[in-house]
TrEMBL record:
The keyword Metal-binding applies. This is VOC family protein. Pfam families: Glyoxalase. InterPro entries: Fosfomycin_Res_Enzymes (IPR051332), Glyas_Bleomycin-R_OHBP_Dase (IPR029068), Glyas_Fos-R_dOase_dom (IPR004360), Glyoxalase_1_CS (IPR018146), VOC_core (IPR037523). Residues 11-135 form the VOC domain. The keyword Metal-binding applies. Keywords: Metal-binding.
């Protein structure tokens, strides 16, 4: 493909995730992210849900897996969501703690040593690695690993 034929207005559309239990994942993603169900299918062997906010599709869930996320295999490394403020990150952290989510680091951490951006790093019920971060406000904590990006190695 030549430089003149590449898309000029490219942006991520939505992310599709395979899950083991659609109802459990719906409960988690709706509580943590405030997603609304935009479409849903419950035909045996073809259960899915389209989730979004304000009419924009953001995540699709497909009940097609028999086991949890395997970080040792090629594929999705993690899914990251940006919010406006570090206070929103901390509010999401409280919701996640009430749900018993597993965190990689304790509390809000910066993306790297000296970085102002940062957030929380956790897994969904199937072990899919997720991040919620803000562009500033995380610089009051030390980075978990000084020599590497925080989001790259969890």
């Amino acid at each position: 493909m030549s430089a003149s034929t590449v898309p000029t207005a490219l942006q991520t559309g939505h992310i599709g995730l395979n899950v083991t239990d659609l109802d459990r994942s719906l409960d988690f993603y709706r509580k943590v992210f405030g997603f609304e169900i935009q479409a849903e299918g419950r035909e045996p062997g073809r259960a899915y849900a389209f989730l979004g906010r304000e009419g924009r599709l953001m995540v699709t869930l497909w009940q097609q897996s028999e086991g949890g996320y395997a970080p040792g295999l090629a594929g999705l490394h993690h899914l990251s969501f940006q919010v406006d403020t570090i206070e929103e990150v901390r509010a999401a952290e409280e919701v996640l703690r009430s749900l018993g989510a597993e965190f990689k680091y304790d509390g809000v951490v910066p993306h790297g040593e000296g970085a102002s951006s940062g957030g929380i790093f956790f897994t969904d019920p199937d072990g899919i690695r997720l991040e919620i971060y803000a562009p500033s406000g995380a610089d009051t904590a030390p980075a978990p690993v000084a020599a590497a990006p925080t989001c790259g190695f969890f």
